[in-house]
Design brief:
The chain is 32% helix and 28% strand. By secondary structure, it is of the alpha/beta class. It starts with a strand and ends with a helix. The relative contact order is 0.13. The mean pLDDT is 91.
């Protein structure tokens, strides 16, 4: 608890009959990157708005740096940086004007805290007189991050910061976060991109307002006990339908250019010789007998997304 920078205990929030958050509890250690991973509508933004003192929970409690989000909200606002999912800076102001404005809100200047944003701002400097509304998605993202950092916050809240940004800018953004972490800043970030989960120290998988699991990415993957294979063919739609009809296939879902399937090896006697272990090669043969062409089946290691799919079915 002494090392916790963010705590939440039994947070609940409803919008009418919709339960946005259901009994959310967790802690974020000082200096960590903590990821809230889940699809759109899972409750990520509601949780961020409560922790950044912009929204009141129906019940439960939360603290940021030991400060209560309700009783001490003014103090919290002075020590956090917040980057909402939607670009919220002033579109008609230039890059430099936006940054000066946000610095003035916190009674500081760009010059005073320039070391904090230097590496990011140097990429923006050639466009410092350009209006924020005319920037590319990646540049808007960098400007918003600079504005969130200009007062040297102790905690940085980033709500889906890479949504709608190209892959190169996404990679650059996470490299920036790793450098910010080295400054001792605690970072809480939400994303629907499962591949970003592995870049966090700890993550919470969220769906329908509830946490499915909170742990390190490595621990979550290591606790995946299903037999997982990847399958592809020349006709992926036809293959998906066929795989779902196999008794040995517990679950099947599209995953990029392949289908991921979980296998129930106890159903071994329902396909092929029961005395033989069921293998990817045997499934390939059975699919080819059904007329599928170019079939490839391999055993694979699970990803965070596979773990999410497995946990969300329960």
């Amino acid at each position: 608890m002494l090392n916790s920078m963010i705590t939440a205990n039994n947070i609940k929030k409803k919008y009418g009959k919709v339960e946005a958050l259901n009994n959310i509890s967790f802690e974020v250690n000082k200096g960590d990157i903590f990821g809230i991973i889940g699809p759109d509508g899972a409750g990520k933004t509601t949780l961020f708005r409560i922790l950044t003192t912009l929204l009141l929970a129906d019940s439960g409690s939360a603290t940021v740096n030991g400060l209560d989000v309700i009783k001490e909200f003014r103090k919290i606002r002075n020590i956090i940086g917040y980057m909402p999912g939607r670009f919220s800076l002033y579109q008609d102001l230039s890059v430099e004007e936006n940054l000066n404005f946000y610095a003035s809100i916190f009674n500081t200047t760009i010059e005073e805290n320039y070391a904090m944003i230097k590496e990011i701002y140097q990429q923006l400097e050639p466009f410092k007189t350009r209006r924020a509304g005319a920037l590319s998605g990646g540049m808007k993202q960098k400007l918003a991050l600079c504005c969130a950092l200009i007062h040297k916050p102790v905690v940085l809240f980033l709500d889906e910061p890479t949504t709608g940004v190209d892959p190169v800018s996404r990679k650059e953004f996470w490299e920036m976060l790793m450098r910010i972490k080295k400054e001792g800043i605690t970072i809480m970030v939400s994303t629907s991109y499962m591949d970003e989960a592995g870049l966090c120290d700890r993550i919470a998988l969220i769906q329908n307002g509830s946490f499915l699991k909170v742990d390190t990415p490595q621990n979550i993957v290591s606790q995946y006990f299903e037999t997982l294979w990847a399958a592809s063919s020349e006709n992926m739609s036809k293959l998906l339908t066929a795989l779902k009809d196999f008794p040995v296939v517990k679950k099947c879902y599209p995953f990029g250019d392949v289908h991921h399937i979980t296998i129930d090896l106890q159903q071994n006697n329902l396909i092929g010789p029961s005395s033989l272990p069921f293998t990817p090669e045997l499934l390939k043969e059975e699919l080819e007998k059904l007329g599928h062409c170019g079939v490839i089946v391999n055993k694979i290691e699970p990803t965070i997304e596979d773990c999410f799919m497995e946990l969300s079915k329960n």
